[in-house]
Design brief:
The complex is a heterodimer. Chain A is of the alpha/beta class. Chain A has one domain (2-423): TIM Barrel. Chain A has 15 helices and 13 strands. Chain A has helices at 16-22, 35-55, 76-86, 99-102, 105-119, 132-138, 145-161, 199-207, 219-236, 257-264, 287-299, 311-328, 336-350, 366-391, 418-423, and strands at residues 2-6, 59-62, 91-94, 97-98, 123-124, 127-128, 166-169, 174-178, 193-195, 212-214, 245-253, 331-334, 354-358. In chain A, helix 3 (76-86) packs parallel to helix 5. In chain B, strand 1 and strand 2 form a beta hairpin. Chain B is of the alpha/beta class. In chain B, helix 2 (71-84) crosses helix 3. The chains are: A alpha/beta, B alpha/beta. The A-B interface holds A 136, 139, 141-144, 276-278, 281-283, 290-291, 293-295, 297-298 and B 135-138, 141, 163-166, 168-169, 172-173, 175-180, 183-184.
């Protein structure tokens, strides 16, 4: 089992009221941004990733967002390059490079190749479509997002594997001279695909034999995505194993239950990632998702949206929501002793070969994060590794995704037990 | 109220739905960015003396046409449609996004139209202000911004007051298709101001409400100054939908222009 560490890398120092009044993080005016504060935070977050490596995590996991203070990694390949130069052992996992919004897949290929080489072959070049609001930030046509993603992916794989120079005239991209002196070092590519609730992304990942990494989605829904993946894999002629699946688990660990509970509230700080008007750009979602949206819109918007300018009510809503998420295990908080059984339960249910700890968010102080990493490294990681071994949770580096043969009858064997999922 | 008859026609291998009503000389009607609004009072009145022909933009209801990459492609497609349907030499009226399409049809096929009416047309970038960005806002919010006084516009309320899920879904389809064709440059073509200068002999009426929050005045002033035989009529106190907000004035000006 491959265990990674991830945080969004929030720009701290903003009041929660400021974010709530904006309707979410995205689009908060950058007049609130201070590059001196930003510089200090980049140093802090890099130091925390290096600590994660030191205490035993298998990877440092990065993502990318724009035009908002929720995530300071606005170009994940730059941060990946910085980590590549100063780290030594842990893999550097991109979840993921948002191909459509980079608008230049050749450059994306060169960047990821460079990062891999600088790191000595430790890059996992995950790729992603980019969230709806990211299309606005980069002015990428949301209606073309899937086409851009598909074509950019195909081009990048070619750029890494086809000897140059060669010429490319595609549907959306055109290059008269493809000859990158930059490509990943390994003999085999390890591309991972993160997602939330899009069945189309799951099917795409399965068709390409790339691990699908669920971003902290609720357990039953995640298991359903696993089923879609497994059925697609059967159609493609292979059996799924743990190496095909990854899961992000929000986790906050501290010396006491009370401290961990309070720190965990950083995961609900500010409420929404984005105001709703950016969440569903035209043409971005599938027809089924649009139909679902139309029905819900007709039924009325979520009550809390009406509370946007009632700060106390909105904060209470968020606190109530936090307790629900604690109750369902969507966020796990506690001491090492109390969180270990809960984490084992997630592994029991979902059987992922890739397991990423999504650490403290929001205004969590640096020293608390470092203490959490120490506790996790000393007590939680060893317990999880042992449990993962017991469950046989092979990761993609132990078993290359897509190479398990189907059973003799050609029918896939589900990875997760429906009974276990139902009881979860 | 006027009743439209719908049929499907095949044009260069793709299907398009046509709505028709009335009798008389044909008037090609190019609808706005959220689709054909349904039977309006102005349709009813004009159908008494004209055969209204309204293509439903591909992708708005039913399958989209995959090879279309921009409005100029749509305009070329409609141009083939018009000639195939024997509409060469007809008059055209385009609303908002449909006005842009009409202008592109005219520059692509200069002899296609006898007269052209553009109602708050997109297509030309205003030098002052921006065409309102319809994409990062909900369709209902965009609609409310399109009239100066929704409560005082009975036709608007009857059309958009209580949208059902199918209507919302249709608007999302329309927005998706408009995003495909008009995302960037947003709702304009850089070359159109130059090209419309070639529309010598095409009598053009441009209608615009002085309370229009969607389209800045500068855009219609540019249309007026560049099209050789164009006149701009500003309707006071109305927004982006003069056909619904000031129907009588709209009809008077339109009928006077079309003859």
């Amino acid at each position: 089992m491959h265990i990674g560490y991830f945080v969004e890398q929030q720009y701290t120092g903003l009041s929660e009221e400021t974010v709530i009044m904006n309707g979410g993080f995205f689009g908060l005016p950058n007049s609130h941004f201070d590059p001196v504060q930003g510089a200090a935070l980049y140093k802090r977050y890099i130091s925390e990733y290096l600590e994660a490596e030191r205490v035993g995590f298998d990877s440092m996991v990065l993502n990318e967002h724009h035009a908002n203070p929720a995530c300071m990694s606005h170009c994940l390949t730059i941060e990946a390059a910085a980590l590549a130069a100063v780290s030594h052992r842990a893999k550097i996992v991109l979840l993921g490079d948002p191909l459509p919004i980079t608008k230049n897949p050749l450059r994306a290929a060169e960047e990821m190749g460079m990062v891999d080489m600088i790191s000595g072959g430790r890059l996992v070049p995950g790729i992603i479509r980019g969230a709806s609001w990211e299309q606005v930030a980069s002015n990428t046509n949301p209606a073309l997002n899937r086409e851009l993603f598909d074509e950019a992916h195909d081009f990048i794989v070619q750029a890494w594997t086809k000897p140059g120079p060669w010429r490319y005239e595609g549907n959306h991209y055109h290059y008269r001279f493809v000859n990158p002196w930059s490509r990943p070092m390994g003999e085999r590519l390890h591309i991972w695909v993160p997602g939330v609730i899009s069945p189309e992304t799951v099917v795409w990942a399965a068709e390409h034999r790339y691990p699908y990494v669920a971003l902290a989605t609720e357990l039953q829904g995640t298991a359903h995505m696993w089923k879609i993946y497994g059925e697609t894999a059967e159609r493609m002629g292979y059996q799924v194993g743990p190496e095909n699946f990854g899961y992000f688990q929000k986790l906050v660990v501290a010396d006491t239950e009370e401290e961990a509970y309070e720190l965990g509230k950083g995961h609900i700080f500010g409420g929404s990632f984005t105001p709703t008007r950016f969440a569903s750009l035209p043409g971005y979602n599938s027809k089924d998702a649009v139909r679902n949206y139309a029905t819900k819109f007709y039924q009325g918007v979520a009550p809390r949206l009406n509370l946007q300018h009632d700060i106390p009510a909105q904060k209470q809503f968020l606190l109530d929501h936090y307790d629900r998420m604690i109750g369902t295990g969507h966020i796990i908080t506690g001491t090492p002793k109390s969180v270990i059984p809960k984490l084992k339960h997630v592994l029991d249910v979902l059987r992922p070969g890739i397991f990423t700890i999504w650490g403290p968010e929001g205004p969590a102080p640096h020293e608390k994060v470092m203490r959490m990493l120490q506790l996790v490294g000393e007590e939680v990681l060893p317990a999880l590794r042992e449990h993962g071994k017991t469950l046989g949770l092979t990761d993609p580096f132990e078993c290359y995704p897509g190479e398990r043969p189907l059973p003799a009858d050609g029918k896939w064997t589900p990875l997760v037990s429906p009974d276990v999922v139902a009881a979860a | 109220m006027v009743e439209f008859v719908e049929r499907t026609v095949e044009v260069i291998g793709s299907s398009v739905a046509l709505l028709e009503a009335g009798a008389g000389r044909p008037l090609l009607v190019l609808h706005e960015e959220l689709g054909h609004p349904g039977a309006l009072a102005w349709h009813h009145e004009m159908a008494k003396s004209r055969r209204l022909v309204i293509p439903i933009q591909p992708g708005f209801r039913g399958p989209r046409i995959g090879w279309m990459r921009g409005v100029r492609d749509l305009a070329a497609f409609y141009g083939f449609l018009a000639r195939q349907e024997g509409l060469a030499g007809c008059d055209v009226i385009g609303f908002s996004f449909g006005g842009w399409v009409a202008a592109e049809m005219a520059v692509g096929d200069p002899g296609l139209f006898a007269k052209m009416a553009l109602v708050a047309p997109f297509g030309i970038k205003p030098q002052v202000g921006f065409i309102k960005d319809m994409f990062p806002i909900a369709s209902l919010d965009y609609l409310r911004a399109s009239v100066a006084d929704p409560e005082a516009t009975p036709e608007f309320a009857s059309l958009y007051g209580e949208p059902c899920p199918q209507q919302i879904e249709d608007w999302e389809d329309a927005r998706a298709e408009c995003a495909r064709l008009g995302w960037e440059p947003y709702m304009h073509n850089i070359s159109l101001p130059a090209l419309v200068q070639g529309l010598t002999g095409l009598s053009t009426l441009i209608l615009w409400g002085d309370k229009d929050e969607i389209l800045p005045e500068d855009a219609v002033r540019t249309y007026q100054s560049r099209i050789p035989d164009a006149r701009l009529e500003i309707i006071e106190g109305v927004g982006h939908r003069p056909e619904s907000e000031a129907t009588d004035q709209f009809l008077t000006k339109l009928k006077d222009f079309l003859g």
